[in-house]
Design goal:
The structure is a single chain. The protein has 255 residues and is of the alpha+beta class. It has two domains: 5-83, Gcn5-related N-acetyltransferase (GNAT) (Aminopeptidase, 3-Layer(aba) Sandwich); 95-249, 3-Layer(aba) Sandwich (Aminopeptidase). It is 33% helix and 35% strand. It contains seven helices and eleven strands. The chain has helices at 21-27, 42-58, 73-81, 120-130, 144-160, 203-216, 231-239, and strands spanning 5-10, 13-19, 31-38, 63-69, 85-96, 111-114, 164-169, 172-181, 187-195, 221-227, 243-254. It has an eleven-stranded mixed beta sheet with strand order 1-2-3-4-11-5-10-9-8-7-6, with helices on both faces.
Length: 255
């Protein structure tokens, strides 16, 4: 039985790949993800990409996805030259400290509570109908219904892992927030946050509530990955004082 993840390296370059059964469950085909890539010379880049594809063929992978730093010109050229297509663009953002958040009236701030199985139907409905950005949602080759299903199933995965919080305002579920604390518990990855479209006016209050919650638990910094096409959320994070660090190009290939 072959391993579900593998790393290939050659002098100045390396590529790590893993199976993604959570994506396969929604898309109905074997999927894998390149989750670490550094290609600094063309001969090694081509060699490693061939090795990755060989591993994927042995695993019967149909769809291979990854993200690469936009500054890796050799890597981008190698990917395009071996049949990969660039289908999305993402940004990494971060914030240190939580002082100076935008003022929000207390009456507009939702409360956050750990999500439960009872919340799943309404949270999945919000994810399915009101989220338009993400690596599968932005890939024109993926059926939009399957991509939306993947986003909805992601919510269930986050709840099962104890990472999701349900946002409630005036007795109504208006959205959700998901985060993962690092081992030292002073840094948090913001995984997924959003409101239903009818509660879009509460988006800023929801984010402020989530960040204040982190501060109250001793977290001192946070980071996130967002779609560059999601201009509304980009502007929101700008208002929240986040800084842009890296631009990543999402690429994929059918095998």
């Amino acid at each position: 039985m072959m391993p579900i993840h593998e790393t290939f390296s050659e002098a100045d370059s390396h590529v790590s790949v893993r199976l993604t059964p959570w994506d396969e469950r929604a898309l109905g085909m074997r999927t894998a993800e390149i989750n670490d890539i550094s290609l600094l010379s063309m001969p090694n880049a081509h060699k490693l990409l061939r090795q990755v594809e060989g591993w994927c063929h042995a695993q019967q992978v149909r769809y291979l996805f990854g993200r690469i730093d936009a500054r890796q010109s050799v890597g981008k050229l190698a990917l395009l030259g071996t049949g990969f297509a660039i289908v999305e663009c993402s940004l990494t953002l971060s914030r240190a400290g939580f002082a100076g958040l935008p003022p929000v009236p207390g009456s507009m701030k939702p409360s956050l509570r750990p999500s439960t199985a009872e919340d799943l139907p309404i949270l999945q409905q919000i994810a399915r109908t009101d989220f338009a950005h993400g690596r599968f949602l932005e890939d024109p080759s993926i059926d939009p219904d399957l991509a939306a299903r993947r986003t909805a199933q992601w919510i269930g995965d986050l709840i099962n892992q104890g990472l999701a919080y349900t946002a409630v305002a005036r007795g109504q579920v208006i959205g959700f927030h998901a985060e993962r604390l690092h081992t030292v518990r002073t840094h948090a990855d913001l995984i997924l946050t959003g409101t239903g479209s009818r509660y879009a006016v509460l988006a800023l209050p929801l984010w402020v509530t989530a960040l204040e919650s982190l501060a109250s638990r001793g977290v001192v910094s946070c980071s996130t990955l967002i779609s560059a096409a999601n201009t509304g959320v980009i502007n929101l994070y700008s208002r929240l004082g986040f800084h842009h660090h890296t631009t990543l190009f999402g690429f994929r290939k059918y095998l």
